[in-house]
Amino acid sequence: MAAAASQGILGDDMKADREQIVEMLVKAYFMELETVMSYITNSVNPDGIRAREIVESLETDIQEELGHAQQFAARIKELYGVVPGSQQFSAEQSFLQPPEDQTDIAHVIRGVIEAESGAIEHYNAVIEFTEGRDPVTQDLVIAILRDEEGHRRLFEGFLREVEGPGGA
Amino acid sequence: MAAAASQGILGDDMKADREQIVEMLVKAYFMELETVMSYITNSVNPDGIRAREIVESLETDIQEELGHAQQFAARIKELYGVVPGSQQFSAEQSFLQPPEDQTDIAHVIRGVIEAESGAIEHYNAVIEFTEGRDPVTQDLVIAILRDEEGHRRLFEGFLREVEGPGGA
Amino acid sequence: MAAAASQGILGDDMKADREQIVEMLVKAYFMELETVMSYITNSVNPDGIRAREIVESLETDIQEELGHAQQFAARIKELYGVVPGSQQFSAEQSFLQPPEDQTDIAHVIRGVIEAESGAIEHYNAVIEFTEGRDPVTQDLVIAILRDEEGHRRLFEGFLREVEGPGGA
Amino acid sequence: MAAAASQGILGDDMKADREQIVEMLVKAYFMELETVMSYITNSVNPDGIRAREIVESLETDIQEELGHAQQFAARIKELYGVVPGSQQFSAEQSFLQPPEDQTDIAHVIRGVIEAESGAIEHYNAVIEFTEGRDPVTQDLVIAILRDEEGHRRLFEGFLREVEGPGGA
Amino acid sequence: MAAAASQGILGDDMKADREQIVEMLVKAYFMELETVMSYITNSVNPDGIRAREIVESLETDIQEELGHAQQFAARIKELYGVVPGSQQFSAEQSFLQPPEDQTDIAHVIRGVIEAESGAIEHYNAVIEFTEGRDPVTQDLVIAILRDEEGHRRLFEGFLREVEGPGGA
Amino acid sequence: MAAAASQGILGDDMKADREQIVEMLVKAYFMELETVMSYITNSVNPDGIRAREIVESLETDIQEELGHAQQFAARIKELYGVVPGSQQFSAEQSFLQPPEDQTDIAHVIRGVIEAESGAIEHYNAVIEFTEGRDPVTQDLVIAILRDEEGHRRLFEGFLREVEGPGGA
Amino acid sequence: MAAAASQGILGDDMKADREQIVEMLVKAYFMELETVMSYITNSVNPDGIRAREIVESLETDIQEELGHAQQFAARIKELYGVVPGSQQFSAEQSFLQPPEDQTDIAHVIRGVIEAESGAIEHYNAVIEFTEGRDPVTQDLVIAILRDEEGHRRLFEGFLREVEGPGGA
Amino acid sequence: MAAAASQGILGDDMKADREQIVEMLVKAYFMELETVMSYITNSVNPDGIRAREIVESLETDIQEELGHAQQFAARIKELYGVVPGSQQFSAEQSFLQPPEDQTDIAHVIRGVIEAESGAIEHYNAVIEFTEGRDPVTQDLVIAILRDEEGHRRLFEGFLREVEGPGGA
Amino acid sequence: MAAAASQGILGDDMKADREQIVEMLVKAYFMELETVMSYITNSVNPDGIRAREIVESLETDIQEELGHAQQFAARIKELYGVVPGSQQFSAEQSFLQPPEDQTDIAHVIRGVIEAESGAIEHYNAVIEFTEGRDPVTQDLVIAILRDEEGHRRLFEGFLREVEGPGGA
Amino acid sequence: MAAAASQGILGDDMKADREQIVEMLVKAYFMELETVMSYITNSVNPDGIRAREIVESLETDIQEELGHAQQFAARIKELYGVVPGSQQFSAEQSFLQPPEDQTDIAHVIRGVIEAESGAIEHYNAVIEFTEGRDPVTQDLVIAILRDEEGHRRLFEGFLREVEGPGGA
Amino acid sequence: MAAAASQGILGDDMKADREQIVEMLVKAYFMELETVMSYITNSVNPDGIRAREIVESLETDIQEELGHAQQFAARIKELYGVVPGSQQFSAEQSFLQPPEDQTDIAHVIRGVIEAESGAIEHYNAVIEFTEGRDPVTQDLVIAILRDEEGHRRLFEGFLREVEGPGGA
Amino acid sequence: MAAAASQGILGDDMKADREQIVEMLVKAYFMELETVMSYITNSVNPDGIRAREIVESLETDIQEELGHAQQFAARIKELYGVVPGSQQFSAEQSFLQPPEDQTDIAHVIRGVIEAESGAIEHYNAVIEFTEGRDPVTQDLVIAILRDEEGHRRLFEGFLREVEGPGGA
């Protein structure tokens, strides 16, 4: 237990790593915020009975994703970063914009899968980078990754049906 | 009670008015969404004891403002509109970006007052326009206006102290 | 503020208006009661997976509609009217009787839309009539109108799918 | 345990009995629905301090009776019957219509006792008929009978006082 | 939407109206406070079984009326007024002072009706004045008016019985 | 009331009947345990939107069926029996094993109906045998039979749709 | 369904049976009341660690047994009987009086078993007598019998240990 | 602070006082137990609307009085006494036996007042005796005395009305 | 234990003392009522961040002080007194009137301390007078005194800071 | 009621008494804190089935004793004392250190009794000293004494068994 | 961060590892299911006071272990595996079958320890294998391992006592 | 997966590591206990408005830190260690002793930061040591580290303000 390591990721000796993690968290923060926005949109617009399952699933996730965003924001602060303002936000989820036809749920399902895949990819990278560097951030991101993996798996199941012989 | 009026704002005869209201609600929807974003930022960044009151007040409001956004989204749908996607969002609250110095709470207070003033102005316009046209939307907006007026008043009180002789 | 107006709708000078409102509320009261009856029927009879969403939606609404009926009854009493007995009830919702085939959910969906449209029409008339005469009744009816509009919109979405190319 | 008996009341061999039970349950279903209607009426109309006990008792029972109706509806469905629509409803409780004078609580008390007596009579018949045929329906009806017996007993006590020397 | 109207009742252009509303709210505030006081008194003093219904009704209302007072106080503040202190309070409800005989509940019932009538009159005036001027205050007062109308109606029913042939 | 009968099913004179009931309860116990197992499997494996209703229904039933198993175990103990261990368990529900294709929900629905039919048959036999012998066990089994009948009826409705012209 | 049977146990034709049942319920009522008393005594007096399980079990049962007594009292009233006063109570549970030595828990265990056995015997007799006469009372007593059987079984298990080679 | 006084009422030097207090608590314990019994009786038997207030008041008190009994029992144990068994109970409340006529509520009211007066007298004696000797018991009894005084006062109010010119 | 003392403070022999206590309680009752009024005023008017702590503390206390007032009222009734009406109220708390400037929180803090000091003084007097005369009232007032002492101490701490070198 | 006594224990005239009480409370505060520490230790270490009752009892008490410590701390502050820091803590409970063998529960039981006896002795002294000087502190300590007496009594019962012929 | 690693364990490049983990999870899933079964058996069968602690501990764990099984099932699905059906279950816990004598709790205790040891061994292997491969599964298994370690430790303590000189 | 590793940290082959971890946990345990003590002291002593935020923050943390201590104690036991008694406690937090002046909150803030820094350092060492040795302890300590990092960050923000130009 050398003195240099004693404050962990908060120590002066780890400043560069810390700033790298903050940067990754800022990206994660905006991903979650945009997901909140996209899920509100897609939990209100779709029409039809079959759409209800998707709508209810997304409605439930809005709170969960907002919670993720707030956890990322808090961790940014703890690592001596600054949470960015709304002017630094730029939309990335072109695949989750409302479709032409509000009964086209395959569009929504594919959009959700793409969004979750992006998140899974980024969170795996964060987990890898924080290994041995910042166990607290790693633990937080593993827990969030678990939510996203489960969510994508559910929508992959939806897609299988929708794209099957009897799909829309 | 002429036939033309019987379905109220949902009737075919009121299509133009309805589309006008949808447009106003879309604007309101994005105002509330940006406020959610700004309040997360400003409930995490500020440092200091005095900042706690502001931080706690904003933290509580995040859920309230998200609720407003979801109510606007639902009403847009009911009026046969389409809730827009994240790519149509563009940040307006230049006054609520994080300040240089995280103990500069006067910056945050002034930003909140400006945001609330913008909302109050827009909601007064919606209330005026819906008068005699769409009592359901009007009722919904009056209730939200009440929250915003109370909130601005609280921050005006904060500002008075902060800008006073003993202020920061 | 003339003395004659001081007790509002409860004043002697407004007796004729008050009796007119009571009559409208009696009609509303029986509409809601019949809806309770129809929704029990249609939340139990339908068979099939797709019917579950409709069934669950109607089950939830039974309590809501009963609440509406009780609010109308209470307001009739407050306006010095008498809530009518069961012998004055006569069924009007021919469109919500059980279909031949219990998997015919399009029948149920169309019935719900027709019932809600009738309610929306009547409530718009009450809101118009009470304007400037009885703000308490007006406020109460606006809140109920909001529920009915949201409910009809949901079933219109169901209908779109059911009547589409892949519908039943 | 002969094969014929193995599915109990749901078996093909018991179709005639089952249809007889469904018929009895349909009657019970409409009795409970009318009671809901009558109890709303009589929990709102009566005036006076003494009427409060009756009013509060009926208010509480509205939910209970609605629950009975929903249990009957569900059992009709389970026995392969169809829950009837509102057009098959016809009012029977002439004794529970609103009285001339809203302080005439003896009228209400007598009406409740008559309604409960009708229910008790019918439910005893159902219990007798289902004995050895359909234990599930029997168990359900015994539990409901218990409620009705307790309720009638309470109102008989009220009647004794009201009809006594110091009664209204 | 002229600039002058954009901040609604909070705008500088509406200062005179705002001060008028504040004045009306101050009066309403003291009416509710005195009602709290009177209802404590009259929920404790009366003796007898028949008095229990009145006592329990008033006990429940104490919290409700206190809530009204606090809502009025908050609205005064939001409209840039100052909530007055206890020295500006002066008792008005001569009709709700404790009677000679604590079993004289007719005295209490009449007092409550008179208090509620005063409130109804004043709130109708506020609703009329705020029409088109301050929808938030109007909405708040309509909701409170509803409580008061329901409450007076209940006590009118009590009075009918008490003053009838068999009354005290 | 002869002395020999006074302790009911717990008396020495009823030992043979008691042992017969214990045997029937042991069978019931293992049926419920296997159902728990099968419902976990079938509430996790199926893919697709339409499968959600089945999945959610089974998920809810897991707790209910476990409760049934625990009630049977407790009753076995009360009747001086011994609850068997896991080595005496042998799987019987060949019809509820996972299908080849996880979107084949007709397979699952048919499996549930078959499982419930087996339970209904066995419980009817227990009810018949306990008649006049052990009212406590009979009452317990009637209540459980009610759950199973309702559950089978729901899945029969699902099957009707799935096997219909538009089914999978 | 002869007219004479139509009101079930509440009909005039069943007066003699009803009075017999009331008598049995009065006995049951006093048995439960004495058990309440004995269980308070025996949940407070015993000393020692081993006694804790007995004490906690009895403490929990006090409320349950009081509930039984209140249910019996209510049923007596419903059957037109009169609940007796305290002067008609006479203690019967000689076996549940406090022992010489407060660590003698075998004494308490044997007392509880004897009390429960008495109750089981009496409740079996009531169930037998009410068969075909009064299904409501029968149902109520079966449910209570179930509690008592479970309770006795638990204490028989305690006794086995206490009287075994390593017992007190 | 002499050594002799250091363990307070639990010290050996205070054995005589302690035994005196135990004796007083045993009496209090049986008073409360008999009250439980009498209140069950009198919360079930009375008929009539007016009786509802008394019935509901006594029903609520059953749990309170049982709680008092359990507190007395626990304190007896803490003071090294033994809680007596049911055979030492002997009924004293001749005034709370059921009246001839179940609508004679004056009988019940007078009985309650007499029971409460007896309790108040005894508890004043305990408070006086424990002064300076056993502050824990004193504190416990003062709290119970408060309940009993409030209860008697309520029934004195009932009596005033019942015995007045319009009483039963 | 002389007969004269047996009913404690409720006995005829203690009438003079009782009337003296009632008088003291009436004064306490009005003190608490005025405090409710003053705390509403002072929990709404003050502006500024620093004022939030005071505002929140007073808001919480409103309910507590109202509870005190209601306890005093109930005790007055129990001691055969009459709770006075609003016309006997006269404001005493000149020190808690709203200040000129709503950011002058030192004014509010000093006012609260003065109000609490007055209450503490009066309650000490009541405790002294009731010693050996009315333990129930004494116990009630000690509990309230505890609240007031804690509250004053908190505001003394506030004052120390506000009046210090860096104070307002 | 001389002026000097009017502020009770908080008055300047009682400074010496107050400081004496503060000193006693500081001792009580540390006693409770050490008990928290000892109870954590002894609720985790012991092995065995018999130890479960002791372990569960101590686990529950940890929160209770912490609450006592916090109440003492708050009262020290109210009496113008200063709550001491951790460096002034010195362990006294030699009898509650972990035993050699973790199944030696007699060691733990004796330790708890000794700790409670010490507390009872000290609290009796505080009660005696505060008599007529500081009723608020006295009331608080009586309530805590009650907990400790009950707790010691329970463990004395445990000891009796453990030290008996069949004890460990 | 090579592209191949970006989807983590869900990526195509990790298929072999994923299938290995699924296999390990299937084994874990059946271990937990059998534990549910064994704990029901062993929470019902044992007789005696000492057995209560074991019985209550196992009862609580049933839900916990079922939750573990459901978490394993969900994770199998997320990793593209199939949850096996009941026919693939084969009992392994020979040590948790019911003993000859239902008071032989040493048998139960040893069985629980053996079952937990098997689980601990397997979970350690899963944790080791998932290291650096699948952090989500690893995190989930660590949390479950923690429960099992705590549980085994508790039963080891029980065993120490039971096998000691004074054991059964 | 060699046999030696199969029981993980609980295996005999890891005894030395396990004892090392126990030692580290004992240190952690006492750190948390002293923090509980220090936070009680510092949540009661400070005076002033500004101190409220610190006081409320520490009050909330008392429960959290006690929970940490109990988790460490439980883990020590699971790893076959012995939780030490109070005599092994020795105070280390010289920086958290009460200051001279109770309005000196900078002293408290600095003390909290120093305490949290000590904890962060020690927990980082535990996490590092348990890596690959004891995942359960590691997981537990990471979760606690997260709390401590968040807490220190908050107080660093406080310090920045307090030490700034306008600080105390």
In short:
Chain A has 168 residues and is mostly helical. The first copy, chain A, has helices spanning 15-44, 51-78, 105-130, 135-163.
Keywords:
homododecamer, 168 residues, mainly alpha, elongated, disordered N terminus
Q: How would you explain this protein's 3D organization?
A:
- Twelve copies of one chain form a homododecamer.
- Chain A contains four helices and no strands.
- By secondary structure, chain A is mainly alpha-helical.
- The longest helix of chain A has 30 residues, at 15-44.
- Chain A is elongated and about 60 Å long.
- Chain A starts with 14 loop residues before the first helix and ends in a 5-residue tail after the last helix.
- At the G-J interface, loops of G face α4 of J.
